[in-house]
Amino acid sequence: MSGGPPIVVRGLNHFFGHGEARKQAIWDVNLEIARGKLTILMGPSGSGKTTVLTLMGCLRDVQEGSVRLLGAELNGASEADLVQLRRRLGFIFQAHNLHDSLTATQNVLMGLQVHGKGDPVKQAKAASHILDLVGLGDRADYLPGNLSGGQKQRVAVARALVSNPEIIFADEPTAALDKQSGQTVVQMLKQLGQDRNTTTVMVTHDNRILELADRIITLEEGRIAKDVIQEKPLQIVQSQSVS
Amino acid sequence: MSGVLAALFGRLPIGWLQLTHSRTRFAAALAGVSFATILVFMQLGILGALNQSTIAPYDHFRADIMISSEDANTLTDGGNVARTRLFQALGVPGVAEGAPILIGDLVLQMPDGSSSSLQTFGLNVTDARFVSPETASQMDLLRQENHALIDTATRGIPAEAFDGLLAGSPFPFEIQGTTLTAVGTLQVGGGFTADGTLFVSEQTFLRTSPNRAAGAPSHILLNVDEGADPAIVVERLRATLPMDAVKVQTLKDAAAADLAYQTTERPTGIIFGFGVVIGIIVGIVIVYQVLSTDVADHLKEYATFKAMGYGQTFFLGIVLEEALVLAIFGFIPGLLVSLGLYAGMSSLTGLPVAMTPDRIAMVFVGTVAACALSGAIATRRLAAANPADLF
User: If both were cysteines, with which of A21, B36, B75, B127 could A17 make a disulfide (CB 3.0 to 4.6 Å apart)?
Assistant: First the structure.
């Protein structure tokens, strides 16, 4: 792990479509994301926040400009390099994208098995521990179809966190949740940052969670319109740490 | 099952869990693979019946070499061979013995008015060295005028009609206006050109086929001296006999050439061959459809796995796991249904439609390969796309 910012974006442009239908969605975005902080990307629909998130998270090819993620340049990176980088990240999506035929535990195990076979007993313990932390210890053997929306999202969070990622990218993780579930999810992510120095980048429309952010970047029409660093964001105080 | 597969793969058996998650869809997918298997088995069964019925007559004879008319592509078509070729051949070094055979199609009339066509072989009954042991043991029975060995599997004649004959009572029947007596049996069955087989002496054959002559048999069979190489003797015969009038081949080569002619030049063979190709293509399309639909239905989950750092080999592994499960669990009912259909088709048509271990192995390997190939193709979109494009 290098000592610099885990994410450095320089002169980032991005286009969708081809030929005459080609349209620029991101215009000369420059930013650095500090380690261990919760950064929120905000903006109206179509402002380009999810596109920036997916470009920073190796989910989309960088077309123009530079994105350095954990010290590696993404523009022109090989598929093999991208696969290795993705294993150091955690993703939480608006749609939980849990595998319907896998139980909560098995879905979480997928976050561990990506790193290799490992010791099945240790993996099972780690999965069980993280499910306990998100309050789903008693739902470990449930299929997603038998869980509520909030519970599914918490399983998705557990899956993203179980392998101790260096950066978590979250795209509208609270959009499908009620107020209490949404706060629980974001508080977990915030506490993780505090306990493990994990960097979190989150796209959200949810004003209820802005007070937890260390930094709020607002995008409009593909450009950074506002970039606010909160000097005293709300800190999470909880007796049980995520570790 | 999940535990066994997990231990086998060293990971969660996602393919198996995915397939069995919805029992109805799993059953539908298995039905699709089974149907594809049945389709291929049936086409191969029909083609196999053609092959089997083409080769079967050759199995009645024990000879190293066969001399045929130059234009004869099969046992039954083409012209005849002058009997003098037999005497010429006997003068060639390496040729030990020879015998003519006459072949013709005769129509058997049953008392109830029904009829069956019989591929009839007229043999030199004084020489049993050119026929199979089963026929050789009954050759003496044919010495008597109008006696015959009849095929108890003849299509159109109920098996019970031969009960008396099998119990030792001769079975009289009419053929071309002549009454023959079946005094012995053989079991061959119907083919695509005749309903059964009949063995008679040369003299009886000529009596029932007045347009044929003793001096012009259909083919001449030869055996070579002990230790002689039939291929070398064939070359000597070709150098001696007029090749614009006759063709000389080993009996094995003649059977192979007949089979090749039937399957590649006769309409029936070509149609059945196309049937096999179409069956395989339709089978692959069905299997591909099943697997590609499954991949498409799970694209979001796969995209999530891809975002987590799973590579293309992982997805190939899942789809190949599914392909293997579908191939095995779809093949077994497909095979069982095909066995039933073979039995039914054989019983209804009298054709030798029979399952062979080779065919079972070949179709199973083909099913696994088709499933694996279809699965690999179905994951192409996943390989090419960015995860963000798949959500």
Answer: A21
